[in-house]
Design brief:
Number of helices of chain B: 12
Distance between the termini of chain B: 35 Å
Oligomer: heterotetramer
Strand order of the largest sheet of chain D: 1-2
Mean pLDDT of chain B: 87
Chains: A mainly alpha, B mainly alpha, C mainly alpha, D mainly alpha
Number of strands of chain D: 5
Number of strands of chain B: 1
Structural class of chain D: mainly alpha
Helix content of chain D: 55-70%
Low-confidence stretches of chain B: none
Order of helices and strands of chain B: HHHEHHHHHHHHH
Largest sheet of chain D: 2 strands, antiparallel
Strand content of chain B: under 5%
Structural class of chain B: mainly alpha
Mean pLDDT of chain D: 88
Distance between the termini of chain D: 64 Å
Largest interface: B-D, 79 and 84 residues
Number of helices of chain D: 27
Shape of chain B: globular
Number of domains of chain B: 1
Strand content of chain D: under 5%
């Protein structure tokens, strides 16, 4: 089944994301993940209804092209290539990511599924992606990598949302599309300001406000 | 007593006269005993009467720093002492004034006297008199509980809050028993401290730095000083009546009762004189321990009552 | 439903953003605020007549929250002209526009009967308020904005996932779109329990982040500390109320499905944790704006604690929402004035505020006393009743912990407040030209007066509405003696 | 009832003229406050002497669902407590004209808040509903806080006011808990009798402990007294007189109300109160002995007197739980009368102390002396207060202590003889120590020679300050000389404290109050006659004090306050732990040496302050939790989520 392959690929991209040190590559991988997820609704056998098409196109365009474009533009300004000295090293990150994926499977096991759907892998994959996004947010120092993490986190939610796209398209569309557009847009602006004000994108410098 | 209002009135009159006139005799007796013990002839027994008569003729000298309080001390001491004398039974069963709770008033009248004496000492601004005043209040803080615990024991025994009943009707359980001995022992200590007798204080010295009462009245003279001396003797009498009260049998006629009372007072004076002759004054730091012994004695008396 | 409540502020926001005259901009702001309040009051008349299938409309709960936000907004809007006049260096366009958009979005949220719309409204309020936090355009405000956005967005993403979980729970049970709250509650027996529980956990963490429940509150001190007082007031009283409302809606569904014990346990836990965390950071807190931020964390804790205890406490948690919002406006606005006068918000530098800014100094002191539960101010009523309900409905240890924490927080907070308000202004500190004027203090005085009135009296229709709102969130039983007395008095025939 | 409400209103408004007019408004405030006092005392007399028809009149405030019924009831307890409240407020207000004149900072503010304080106090005594009670309670506390803060430029004042605020708020929180438990039992926030048997239950115990600590904080019961000395010392003296005279009595009011609700108090309640009373009384006076600050000294005496009052209430409670009406009547009556008496003489003492501070500009005892000649009227007023507070006949202090003594002596006959015995011993010790302390205070301040230039240049205070002292002194004398006047009002109050269907004997039948008046006559008469006899004749010689041979004594060589108290303080050093600085003098030709001894507050300086500092330090150690790193903040969110999910699954 195609959707199972796509989901497996998504989970694999998660591991790539936590293991990569080059910022540019992590943007690429996130974009690839976005495309994967964007294509996913077309493979679910729900037909080519206007909702489904809209979702697919929007996701592919936004996740696969627009956001990576924004991020690359910000990256070009500050001349950063590598994420050096993350809070959590790459090996440990990989292990944590594996652990998270395992936990996601356990957790998903506790959540019953509607019988007969094609969604067996969706819940663990969604939770694993969510966790990966969180892991990136927590472990990385560069603001831009953190935004990538946020993007991955959103991908996880999107993946879960696809489970409902057939029965409740309205809810999913309103939520997810808005989230994608506005959230990332504002973040792009903020990243812009940060690079101007701090002349770098290391969030270590963003720790002056504390107790 | 209600059967013989006339006898009763007579007794009241006798009581008042005793309180007013007889007290200066006690210091005289004590001093006579002390002199005899020391092998001297000593001053006459009525010496204090002569002193008082002479002092009341003399011109008084006042310190420039003093205010009216200076005079209030001696005046208040005598006034309070005389009123207190009306609350304690002498030779008869009941004091001229007796009511539930008079025992507290009795104790507080002495407190009033002390307060005014101390203030009149402080009024001079002399550091010697200040020192005496400080000692007076310090020792009183220990004497007071001993007095009250003794009252508590008597109250527990008699079920009464009136001094007359407590002293004159101590009850069969109490009389000549262990608690009574302890109470009397405690009160004897209080008696010596309150009256500034040896071993707490030495009434004969005036310039030694170890004194309490005498140093507080250094600046008094003339009539105020007469009041001071009279007040001190009054205290000896009234507290003496308190001390001998519980052991008087009071079972004979009025006349004999009074006789017993007077004899007991003489006996007390002799004992005090004897004690002063054979004992030395304590070091000032030992005095609190002595007083604590008094508190403990009366406290034990109370506890023994419960057994 | 009242479209105009949503549309009017949004149009006004557009206009304010477009025009160039600062004078007209603040006039639009104030006028919109007044009109909005009037509109809310008019719309409240119909809270009981919400049609069953409506997607948008005011019910008792939403009406109560919207009323609070509208009043709070009015206070801030009346304060804004004087404040903006003091800040000619900053562009008022984005500021005014953001404020007005927030009002519109809050109106949308309050009227939303659909979890999706609720979520959208929350998301957009986050975005609308982000520029407000960045108002000062310096490094610190940027850092605060960055933290606010990222933590807030993550939280909201979790809330979205939680909403989707609940939708899936409904989907499994065969409940069809549209997933209106009313329908979810009516068909609550059909919802899948594991999904519902997981969904509640996710929304609790998500909206809890937005509310500022410990330990997800960490953006709060930074954001509140770096914004102007007026924004702090709006965030602490308005945005948090929005998130709380969103959480309450989900809680109502969960409670209707019979999962209330599970949810209440979580709410009580978060409540106590928030109060404890706030207490830890309020002790020896030298920065008075951060102090207020932690106080906000504390009071968010009290809100969820009240809901978690349930019954009478839930009703007074709703009451506390209003009390807290209004008092926080007084505190943040006066703190802003004091900050302006001293050009510092740190303790060793700010002393003797009642000498330099007498009105603001007194208001800050009174606000502090009010928020810590001093009668006859309104927060006392709610804190008293929450404690009472906890102690008499079997939550003995919760009630005890609540009172102990209130005491400890008072201890910590009073230390800073007294050092700041009393004494002599330090001589070395430069004196800025700022002075208390009528325009910078009158809105606060009005707000404080309202808090005082609320502590003593409340109009009958509002009481009825509050009671029905409480019933929606599990506060059905009139457990308090005051309630019983009231009932008895109603029987007696109203002998006033 | 309407008189009572009018009195509250007038008191509340008394400071307002000063705010709105150009003139200072001090006289207007005093006039309004005096009017209020007259109205209020009239109303009280109406109730207490039984002229009032119904006894209790109840006011219902306009209510809402949130507040429910606001009840204010002018019952005998309220009427009794209202008398000192308004009397002291009025005297303080008159006194304020001269004492806190317009040249002082914040004079209008002081008058305004003093008016409000009086109003809240007056409302509190009549509050019979938890909300109204707490409202008036906190209102009172806050007004007092602002008044203590009057001289907020002094760091010490700020600290004192802060400690006070924290203590009073803690107390209020405890009261909230207590009222909650109580309302849980009675089903109403309105005060009403508790169900039979509740007091002995676990919840009843919790309620009692909460009330004990809550009211104890306000009353200044040791070890909860530690806010009191510094707050009283820091406040303007007329405010101190109100605080010490009536504000701390509101804690006692609370205890009295509590007694009236409980039909069957367990025996240990009274025992606890007696024990606390004994500790407060003895420690209070012991700590007072070692003070150098005149107002702190008086403040510690307030703690002592609260102890005496608690002894009385405790004995009364023991009487109530063991069914001994005599004990009940005497204990409660003594405590209640002592409430009134203490407010009169302590108010008087604070006013006189204020007069001294006003004249010399210092509170330090060691810089005073000889003021009796310079300010004779103030000295006389202080002497009356001192006389009364030592419980010496024939003034009012003796009467109330006498009643408590009577209760204690009667209690000895019970099987629970221990607590009466403790009372007896404690009262005896307290009496002796108080006498020592006030001999020291009066002696060092007013007698001897001035120890400093300020003291030497002191002058008598204006009549606006002397008249209030005179009023209070007269009141002290009136109660002392005619205590029988208090019997009927006390019987009225006592009837509210009786148990279920219990008829208490009258106070007059248990205590021979007329005897006290009767015996005062010979005492005064003798005093008068002897005075006439011994008074200095015009030709009496005046000489310097005899220096016992030392020819050049000066004022600094007088016995000081510290030396006076040294014997007692050293004797009790095992509980007081005086802090001594400076060493012994050694050798034959010693260098000049300094010597100081201070008496730290055992609770504030040795427990509360270090405890709070330590706690704050520990809590500061948790600051690392918010070090500013966004990643860690996000990790909190993640961990919370994971933990909750795991918790949900498990």
């Amino acid at each position: 089944m195609i959707h199972d392959i796509l989901i497996t690929l998504t989970v694999l991209t998660n591991f790539t994301l936590v293991a990569t040190s080059r910022v540019n590559k992590s943007i690429q991988v996130a974009a690839f993940q976005g495309v994967l997820l964007g294509l996913l609704p077309l493979t679910l056998g729900l037909g080519f209804h206007i909702h489904i098409l809209l979702m697919a196109v929007a996701a592919v365009v936004v996740k696969g092209w627009f956001i990576p474009f924004l991020l690359r533009r910000a990256l070009a300004k500050v001349h950063i290539h590598r994420e050096v000295h993350p809070y959590i090293g790459y090996t440990v990150s990989l292990m944590l990511c594996a652990l998270g994926t395992g936990m996601s499977i356990v957790l998903a096991h506790n959540l019953p599924l509607k019988p007969g759907g094609p969604f067996a892998l969706f819940v663990p994959a969604a939770l694993a992606t969510l966790f990966t996004g969180f892991l990136l947010l927590v472990s990385r120092r560069k603001a831009i990598t953190q935004v990538v993490g946020y993007l991955v986190l959103e991908n996880g939610i999107y993946l879960f949302g696809l489970m409902l796209i057939g029965d409740m398209p309205l809810l999913v569309e309103t939520g997810i599309l808005l989230d994608l557009f506005v959230g990332i847009f504002v973040m792009g602006i903020v990243i812009n300001h940060i690079s101007v004000a701090f002349d770098s994108m290391d969030t270590r410098q963003l720790a002056e406000l504390k107790d | 007593m209600s059967e013989f209002p006339f006898v009763h009135s007579l007794q009241v009159l006798l009581h008042i006269l005793t309180a007013l006139l007889l007290s200066p005799l006690i210091p005289g007796l004590i001093n006579k005993v002390k002199a005899l013990m020391a092998g001297r002839v000593g001053p006459p027994v009525f010496q204090l009467y002569y002193d008082l008569a002479k002092l009341s003729q003399k011109q008084a000298v006042f310190s420039r720093t003093t205010t009216w309080i200076f005079l209030a001390g001696p005046v208040g001491t005598v006034a309070a002492g005389l009123v207190a004398a009306m609350l304690v039974p002498f030779g008869q069963d009941h004091a001229p004034m007796h009511f539930q709770g008079d025992v507290i008033l009795f104790a507080y009248l002495f407190g009033l006297a002390r307060f005014l004496t101390v203030l009149s000492a402080l009024d001079t601004g002399s550091s010697f008199e200040g020192m005496g005043a400080a000692r007076e209040v310090t020792f009183a803080a220990l004497a007071e509980p001993a007095l009250f615990l003794g009252f508590a024991a008597l109250a527990k025994s008699t079920g009464s809050l009136s001094l007359s009943t407590m002293l004159a009707h101590t009850g069969p359980l109490f009389r000549f028993s262990g608690p009574l001995v302890l109470v009397l022992a405690g009160w004897a200590i209080v008696y010596m401290a309150e009256n500034s007798r040896i071993p707490v204080d030495d009434p004969n010295t005036h310039l030694e730095l170890t004194m309490i009462h005498e140093v507080m009245v250094l600046d008094h003279s003339g009539r105020p000083f007469a009041l001071v001396l009279y007040g001190a003797s009054l205290k000896l009498l009234v507290l003496g009546a308190l001390l001998v009260g519980p052991i008087l049998p009071r079972n004979a006629g009025p006349l004999l009762n009074w006789l017993e009372f007077y004899l007991a007072l003489v006996f007390l004076a002799v004992v005090v004189g004897f004690a002063e002759s054979v004992m030395a004054r304590f070091r000032m730091t030992k005095v609190p321990q002595f007083l604590v012994a008094g508190v403990l004695a009366t406290a034990f008396a109370f506890l023994l009552m419960l057994v | 439903m009242s479209w105009y409540l949503i549309v009017l502020p949004l149009i006004a926001a557009g206009v304010a953003f477009a025009i160039s005259s600062p004078t007209w901009r603040v006039r639009i702001l104030a006028t919109t605020a007044i009109l909005h309040l009037v509109g809310v009051l008019a719309a409240l008349g119909g809270w009981g007549m919400l049609p069953a299938g409506a997607w948008l409309g005011l019910d008792a709960l939403g009406g109560w929250v919207l009323l609070v936000i509208s009043v709070l907004f009015l206070v801030c809007a009346l304060y804004a002209p004087a404040y903006l006049a003091l800040r000619p260096d900053r562009d008022g366009r984005i500021f005014t526009g953001s404020l007005l958009s927030f009002l519109g979005l809050a109106s949308l949220l309050a009227q939303s009967q659909h979890p999706g719309i609720t979520w959208v409204a929350i998301e957009t309020t986050t975005l609308a308020t982000a520029p407000l936090i960045y108002f000062n355009h310096n490094r610190h405000s940027l850092e605060a904005t960055w933290k606010y956005l990222l933590i807030g967005s993550v939280g909201i993403a979790l809330a979205l996932l939680g909403t989707l979980f609940i939708a899936y729970a409904a989907n499994m049970g065969g409940v069809e779109e549209p997933l209106l709250y009313g329908r979810l509650m009516r068909d609550s027996a059909l919802l899948s329990r594991p999904w519902l529980r997981a969904g509640f956990v996710l929304t609790l963490v998500g909206y809890g982040t937005k509310m500022g429940l410990a330990p997800m509150h960490t953006w709060k001190p930074d954001a509140y500390g770096e914004t102007p007082g007026i924004v702090g007031a709006l965030l602490a009283g308005g945005v948090t109320s929005c998130a709380f409302l969103a959480l309450l809606r989900i809680y109502a569904v969960v409670a209707a499905a019979g999962e209330a014990p599970f949810a209440r346990e979580l709410l009580v836990g978060f409540g106590l944790l928030s109060m404890t965390w706030a207490m830890v950071f309020m002790v020896r807190q030298l920065d008075f704006k951060r102090l207020l931020a932690y106080s906000s964390v504390e009071h968010m804790g009290i809100l969820v604690l009240g809901i978690g205890i349930g019954g009478n406490a839930a009703k007074f948690a709703l009451f506390h929402l209003a009390a807290n919002a209004l008092v926080k406006s007084v505190l943040f606005l006066s703190a802003g004035n004091i900050h302006r006068s001293y050009a510092s918000k740190q303790l060793p530098f700010v002393t003797g505020a009642i000498r330099r800014t007498p009105v603001s100094g007194w208001l800050f002191l009174l606000g502090f006393l009010a928020i810590t539960g001093t009668p006859p101010f309104a927060p006392f009523i709610s804190e008293f009743n929450i404690a009472y309900t906890a102690l008499t409905t079997g939550h003995l240890w919760v009630g005890t912990a609540f009172l102990v924490l209130l005491g400890a927080i008072f201890l910590g907070m009073s230390d800073t407040v007294i050092k700041m308000v009393f004494g002599t202004p330090s001589a070395e500190r430069v004196r800025t030209p700022y002075k208390d004027t009528f325009a910078t203090t009158a809105p606060m005085i009005a707000a404080l007066a309202l808090v005082l009135v609320m502590g003593l009296w409340m109009p009958r229709p509002l009481q009825v509405m509050l009671q029905s709102a409480a019933v929606m969130v599990g506060g059905s039983d009139p457990a308090s003696p005051s309630e019983r007395e009231h009932a008895r008095r109603a029987i007696d025939g109203g002998q006033r | 009832m309407s008189l009572y409400l009018l009195a509250i209103l007038v008191a509340a408004l008394s400071g307002v003229p000063g705010l709105v007019t150009q003139k200072s408004g001090a006289k207007e405030a005093a006039a309004l406050m005096s009017t209020s006092a007259l109205l209020g005392i009239l109303a009280s007399a109406w109730v207490l002497f039984g002229a009032s028809e119904s006894g209790n009149s109840i006011l219902m405030l306009p209510a809402t669902a949130l507040i429910s019924w606001g009840l204010v009831s002018f019952d005998p307890i309220a009427a009794f407590f209202l008398v000192p409240v308004l009397l002291l407020s009025a005297t303080a207000s008159i006194y304020g004209i001269g004492y806190w004149g317009d040249h002082q900072s914040g004079a209008r503010q002081v008058r305004f808040f003093l008016g409000l304080l009086a109003a809240f106090l007056a409302l509190l005594v009549g509050a019979t509903h938890a909300f109204v009670f707490l409202l008036a309670w906190e209102g009172m506390a806050l007004m007092a806080f602002v008044l203590v803060m009057t001289e907020d430029r002094e760091p010490e004042t700020r600290r004192a006011a802060w400690i006070y605020l924290v203590c009073t708020h803690t107390g209020t929180l405890l009261l909230i808990g207590a009222f909650a438990v109580m309302a849980g039992a009675t089903g109403s926030f309105a005060f009403s009798e508790l169900p039979q048997g509740f007091a002995s239950s676990g919840r009843g115990t919790a309620m009692f402990v909460l009330f004990l600590v809550g009211f104890g904080f306000k009353a200044g019961v040791l070890p909860l007294h530690f806010w009191l000395p510094s707050a009283h010392a820091a406040a303007p003296s007329h405010v101190s007189s109100v605080m010490s005279g009536v504000l701390i009595k509101m804690g006692i009011l609370g205890f009295v109300r509590l007694v009236s609700w409980v039909p069957d108090p367990p025996g240990w309640w009274g025992g606890t109160l007696v024990a606390l009373g004994a500790i407060s009384g003895i420690m209070g006076v012991a700590l007072a002995l070692g003070q150098h600050d005149l107002k702190r000294l008086l403040a510690y005496h307030s703690i002592e007197n609260i102890g005496i009052i608690l002894l009385g209430i405790g004995l009364g409670l023991i009487g109530k739980s063991t069914g001994q009406p005599a004990l009940q009547v005497l204990g409660f009556a003594g405590a209640l009368l002592h409430v009134l008496n203490h407010s009169l003489f302590k108010g008087l003492l604070f006013l006189a102390a204020g007069s001294v501070v006003h004249a010399t500009g210092t509170r330090d005892l060691e810089r005073m002396g000889g003021l009796g000649r310079l300010m004779p009227k103030t000295a006389a007023a202080f002497l009356v207060g001192a006389w009364a507070i030592c419980g010496l006949p024939p003034l009012n202090g003796f009467v109330s202590e006498w009643l408590i003594y009577l209760a204690a002596f009667r209690g000895l006959a019970l099987s629970r003889w221990g607590f009466p015995l403790i009372t007896l011993g404690a009262l005896a010790v307290i009496g002796a120590l108080a006498l020592a302390c006030f001999a020291k205070a009066y002696g060092v301040v007013f007698q001897g020679q001035p120890r400093s230039d300020q003291a030497a240049q002191a002058a008598e205070s204006p009549s606006t300050m002397l008249v209030p002292m005179g009023i209070l002194a007269l009141a002290c004398a009136a109660i002392g000389l005619a205590p029988v006047l208090s019997a009927a009002p006390l019987d009225h109050v006592l009837s509210m404290l009786a148990g279920n269907g219990q008829h208490l004997p009258t106070l007059g039948s248990l205590a021979g109050l007329p005897w006290l008046s009767f015996l005062a006559i010979p005492l005064l008469l003798l005093g008068f006659i002897l005075w006439k006899w011994a008074a200095p004749k015009p030709y009496a010689k005046e000489q310097p004090t005899w220096g016992c041979g030392y020819t050049a004594p000066n004022a600094r060589m007088q016995y000081t306050a510290s030396s006076f108290a040294d014997g007692l303080v050293q004797g009790m050093s095992w509980v007081l732990w005086p802090k001594v600085l400076g060493g012994r003098v050694r050798g034959f030709f010693p260098f000049p040496r300094r010597f100081e001894s201070h008496l730290l507050d055992p609770v504030l300086d040795r427990i509360a302050d270090p405890g709070l500092r330590g706690t704050a330090f520990l809590l500061s150690g948790l600051r690392f939790l918010q070090a500013g790193h966004l990643s860690i903040y996000l990790a909190y969110v993640l961990l919370t989520l994971l933990m909750l999910l795991v918790w949900m699954v498990v």
